[in-house]
Amino acid sequence: MNGFSVGIVIVNLLSFVVAVHALLNKRDPRAALAWIIVCLALPGVGVVLYWLMGVNRIRTRALRWQRRGEGIYVAEEEAPCEKSVVLRTPFHTQNYQLQRHLADAVTRRPLVGGNRVVPLYNGEQAYPVMLKSIRAAERSIDLSSYIFDTQFCGREFVQALIERAEAGVAVRVLVDGLGECYSWPRVHTLFDKTPVQVVRFLPLSLFRRGMHLNLRNHRKLLIVDGRVGFAGGMNISQRHLVQKKRHDVRPRERVVDIHFKVEGPVVRQMLEVFQEDWQFAGGRPFELDPTPPCLGGPDSLCRGISAGPNEDYEKLVWIVVGALNCARKRVSIMTPYFIPDRSMVTAMNSAALRGVNVEIVLPVRNNLPYVHWASRGAFWELLEYGVKIYYQPPPFAHSKLLLMDDHYALIGSANMDPRSQRLNFEFNLEVYDKSFNAEMRHHFDTTVAKSQAISLDEMDGRPVWQKMRDNFFRLFTPFL
Fold first, then answer.
1. CB neighbours of 445 closer than 8 A, spacing ≥ 6?
2. What CATH class is the domain 315-479?
3. CB neighbour list of residue 390: distance below 8 Å, 6 or more residues apart
4. Which parts of 71-220 fold into alpha helices (H)?
5. If one looks up domain 117-295 in CATH, what number appears?
6. Are 315 and 414 a contacting pair, CB within 8 Å?
7. Which residues span the membrane (predicted)?
8. Which of 165, 242, 401, 475 has the fewest CB within 10 Å, making it most exposed?
9. Distance CA 217, CA 308 (A)
10. Helix ranges restricted to H, 88-152
11. pTM of this prediction?
């Protein structure tokens, strides 16, 4: 047997071993089957692809941290304002009790009262408030963004952060190693030779152990002095400035979104999430600011939910399915990327059959066409059982929002797709607040009023080639 033949045998043996690894370790049987086919059909190539994209080394590292007692937050036995949480509505009704018990079981943080959550629409509202908070910082600024544009408004953020760092404020900036590639020059280079501390989350490199093309940090967090926080779906990007008078962003590139200003004890949970990511990515350890006091007057009950491949549970899937199962009247979902798995489709249909009004608002034109096609492959199953689906007109809608009945909202960075629910590091907030729910409901209903309803007849009437295209891309749901 010559050297070439030996090489062929070794490659085929490695492909078989990797296929067995996928069989034993992949929780989603569709993903396991897909990887097995790739490894056996493409010997050698499948091994490389699986090593780069299919192996979750993050959870292994996180488990080592837990064993050493590092970097993983453990909830305090008594949370701030806990008495008000127990005694107050909406927990006099069973559906909210059950939703809370589910989140208590699968998350690492308590539900806390004494908070205020204020929605900020698009960059025109969000960026000035964020910059004002940064410029008023006295002790610390902690900023995490998936995309940090280095043009136009991004430069304004860079300058404000440098100025506060030079004034003695501890400024820490965490950017995703893939997300920073959306802009040039890369943002970390703009902080060179300044007091701003910058860490890149899993930077892309052929010379590191695994490139981690997946497993990205998709969180968008800003915490100032440990007292004021910002979270949601908005990156730092000129595209979020959507007013038509602007000439530096082309109309088709504009992105509408909602960000949220947060005050109260839950800001401490946001800071803990940032600290975990910061130390995980190699940043120098730092002490957390004190927990903010409870706010007086009308407030929100909130919980920070950090989800990602380092966690034991698929928290976001379970919590969304829980909300669908607990709903009595209405569930409203707004998301840019919608690729539901079987459990999500079943929960939506089950809720609709129980008489719950299940509504989903999606952008009519997606910036990722293959995601748009894959989502259309699932529409008929939902429409058949009474789920309502709407297409929102341009600009591209990047908002992520789930409302359940009159009190519950789930907001944050996660989309309704496998990448957010299983692969990316995400941060969401649970909010129990009737007035906040009503404000978000008004935004949702206003959007629906100008959106196009999708009908089952329309889906059935698609040309055969469109049905084949949409269903073909739906086959790749575990990877999209």
1. none
2. alpha beta
3. 359, 360, 361, 362, 447, 448, 451, 452, 453, 454
4. 82-87, 94-106, 122-135, 153-166, 187-190
5. 3.30.870.10
6. no
7. 6-24, 31-53
8. 475
9. 9
10. 94-106, 122-135
11. 0.85
